Amino acid sequence: MASSENQGRIDKEKQRAAAQALRWVRDGMLVGLGSGSTAAYFIQLLGDALRAGQFQVQATATSLASEVLARSVGIPLVEPRRGLRFDLTVDGADEIGPQLALIKGGGGALLREKVLATASDYLLIIADSSKLVPQLGHFPLPLEVVPFALPWVLDAIAQLGGDPTVRLDKKKAPQPALSDQGNLLIDCHFKSLPDPAELALQLQAIPGIVEHGLFLGLARAAIVAQDEKLVVHRLGAEPVDAAGFEELP
């Protein structure tokens, strides 16, 4: 299959997963809006539904880019405040492993994504079939790092076998890419992560790492599109056809 044909198939899968997630939104919800290409499809569809009068919701976005998109499609946004809890956050993932363990942050929004995921009653992941993996680690693990601490963080990650690289700004290379918070983004090439929980503890102990892209124990469900089929993956349950769900299971 040609690369362009494969990309077209993946894009259609992303759209199907996003459309299915929209069926789980209910009137009056406070919704967390994820970042990345799959989440962008959901944001656009959510805006369409609001304009059509299907329901009313308010939202907070996990990145400046998602915030701009949400405003452009008419989604009312609320600012962070104490006591704010989200009924539902819909976000993508770079990898979905066993027990809904995730690698996120390929788009550089891992800190805000984890903040909203932690502040949500239900984190729903939407993804195309390429994101489902038997073991995490093929996708480079992102880190958000305070600039001052960069040399020591790189040394520590190298000692863990992570082969770290500083992410470059695609539009301004060789300048480094920066997060929305102005921090550096580091990609760690572990290749395989047999024990993500242990690695998460090791990363948390390294001064200067603001956040890492391992999302463990946060996702409640994932809608994964596989060609024409939509499958819901949940903790402790066998994958099932998404057609059986009209709301949060």
Amino-to-carboxy terminus distance: 36 Å
Beta-strand percentage range:
15-25%
The outline comes out as globular
Count of beta strands: 14
Corresponding CATH architecture of the largest domain = 3-Layer(aba) Sandwich
Count of discrete domains: 2
Q: What does the largest sheet look like?
A: 7 strands, mixed
Rg over C-alpha atoms, rounded to the nearest angstrom:
18 Å
| Low-confidence blocks of residues | none
Strand order within the widest sheet?
2-1-3-6-12-13-14
Structural class comes to: alpha/beta
Helical percentage: 25-40%
Distinctive features:
single chain; 249 residues; alpha/beta; Alpha-Beta Plaits; 6 helices; 22% strand
Description of the structure:
The protein is of the alpha/beta class. The chain folds into 2 domains: 3-129 and 216-228, 3-Layer(aba) Sandwich (Rossmann fold), CATH 3.40.50; 141-206, ACT domain (Alpha-Beta Plaits), CATH 3.30.70.260. Helix content is 29%, strand content 22%. It contains 6 helices and 14 strands. The protein has helices at 3-22, 37-51, 64-72, 110-118, 150-159, 196-204; strands at 30-33, 58-61, 88-91, 95-96, 102-103, 123-128, 141-145, 164-166, 184-188, 209-212, 214-215, 221-226, 229-234, 240-241. A 7-stranded mixed beta sheet has the order 2-1-3-6-12-13-14, sandwiched between helices. A 4-stranded antiparallel beta sheet has the order 8-9-7-10. Helix 1 crosses helix 2 (37-51). The longest helix has 20 residues, at 3-22. It is globular.
